[in-house]
Amino acid sequence: MATCLYDEEAGYFAAGPLRSVAAGDFLTSPEVSPWFGRLVGRFALEEFRRLGRPAGFRIVDVGAGSGSLVRSLGEVVGADLAVHAVEASAAARARLVEVLGAGRVHRDLAALGSGFVGVVVANELLDNLPVAIAVRVPGGWEERWVGHDGDGFHLVAAPCRPEVAAWCERYAGVVPAGGIVEVQLAATAWLKDVLARLDRGALVVVDYGGTAVELAPRRLTGTLRTYRGHHLGPDPLTAPGETDITVDVDFGALATVAEEAGAHVELVTQAAFLEGLGLLDEIERLRRRERELAAAGEAMARLVVRDEVTNAETLLHPRGLGDFRVLVVRR
Ligand SMILES: C[S@@+](CC[C@H](N)C(=O)[O-])C[C@H]1O[C@@H](n2cnc3c(N)ncnc32)[C@H](O)[C@@H]1O
After folding, report:
1. Rounded distance from Cα 248 to ligand 1 centre (Å)
2. How many angstroms is it from 128 CA to the middle of ligand 1?
3. Measured in angstroms, how far is the CA atom of residue 282 from the centroid of ligand 1?
4. What's the pLDDT at 70?
5. In the structure, what pLDDT confidence band is assigned to residue 309 with cuts at 50, 70 and 90?
6. How many whole angstroms from 241 Cα to the centroid of ligand 1?
7. Whose CA is nearest to atom 14 of ligand 1?
8. Between the CA of residue 285 and those of 7, 295, 309, what are the distances in Å?
9. What pLDDT sits at residue 15?
10. How many Å lie between the centroid of ligand 1 and the Cα of residue 266?
11. What global pTM score does this model have?
12. For residue 153, is pLDDT > 70?
């Protein structure tokens, strides 16, 4: 997964075109509607006030992709708050420099430094971090590694490494024999890294996934999958480097790690998070505007507002983006 997604020459994210755009393989919330970024901006402003408007407050979007989130977030926070991006892909970094300027686009988390004050955002980042695959067997766990037999790639059984088994015992919950767990060591390590740097402020992680209990029905087949052209793609081993390989994020594991680090944790749906920041009021305001334009016979302008309403509503869809999870971690 690490090689297929991040290899500097052949990796899905590292090489070639931008992925999280309409012409790419998947559409994320900030690409669907600017209201996602605007409301994250509103959240950041609330944090800024909660902390007493500290000097050096920064907003950092990690895995910022095409820059759609930082762009719409910037409309709300203005020039007063510094907005930065961290992005592993060179193609995406080039695009981000156009939005933020070179001094505010970074390659990795080290850019946060230590004693960070501000808000860190990660939308659809953790589902792409490499996982190990563990299978429940009598008395313990086995791993599935990627093997090559001269004919192609296959998953092969391998003994379970101690850190993988320990992660399963700690976070996976009840898993029946044959059940498959995506062991998210990289995601929990990433969270620990951010928390070690975060002195005061908040981290907002948005993604698909759930707690161990919510993930239990999906353990039979596991959640490892690919996306291509906005649809489920082929088996992860058949087109290495050409598809988005992803898993459901284990938010229970992340919440536990954050609580153990002494942070305050909230886990809500994306719909609840955005509604809490006023999205329903914004949609109502846009609908009123649409009626006014219709009454004035402004057909084109009305269609533009109608489009904005539809896209904003998509962020709340109960079987789509609205059911994504938002983990808010505060210090
Ligand atoms: C699914 S895209 C999401 C992009 C953007 N956040 C959005 O919502 O449209 C994931 C992005 O995270 C980047 N990425 C993956 N691992 C990363 C890491 N460890 N640090 C920073 N960026 C990373 C990828 O290059 C890719 O641009």
Report:
1. 15
2. 8
3. 28
4. 97
5. very high
6. 15
7. 63
8. 46, 16, 10
9. 61
10. 23
11. 0.95
12. yes
Q: Looking at the CA of residue 206, tell me the nearest atom of ligand 1.
A: 8
Q: Domains plus CATH for the chain? A: 2-129+184-275+317-330 (3.40.50.12710), 132-182 (no CATH)
What is the phi/psi pair of residue 137, to 5°?
Answer: -125, 160
Under DSSP, is residue 147 helix (H, G, I), strand (E, B) or coil?
strand
Other Cβ atoms less than 10 A from the Cβ of 224: the count is 18
CB 125 within 8 A of CB 105: no
3-state helix, strand, coil in the chain (%, to 5): 40, 25, 35
Alpha carbon distances (Å) from 63 to 40, 200, 246: 15, 21, 14
Alpha-carbon distances, residue 271 vs 84, 181, 247, 316, 326 (angstroms): 26, 27, 21, 5, 9
Please give the average per-residue pLDDT across 24-47, as a whole number: 91
| Percentage of the chain modeled with pLDDT above 90 | 84
Q: What atom of ligand 1 comes closest to residue 129's alpha carbon?
A: 16
Q: What is the dihedral of CA 197, 200, 204, 205, to 10 degrees?
A: 30
Q: So what's the pLDDT on residue 236?
A: 86
Query: Which of 13, 73, 96, 230 has the most ligand 1 atoms within 8 A of CB, as the residue to mutate?
Result: 13
| Residues flanking ligand 1, CB < 6 Å | 13, 20, 28, 30-31, 62-65, 68-69, 86-89, 92, 108, 123-125, 128
CA of 92 to the centre of ligand 1 (A): 9
Protein residue with least CA distance to atom 25, ligand 1? 89
Angstrom distance (rounded) from CA 15 to CA 266: 36
User: Mean pLDDT over residues 22-31, rounded?
Assistant: 74
Rounded to the nearest whole angstrom, what is the distance from the C-alpha of residue 88 to the centroid of ligand 1? Answer: 7
β pairing state of 225-228 and 231-232: antiparallel
Eight-class DSSP state of 122: E
Which residues, in sequence order, are bridge partners of residue 59?
83, 119
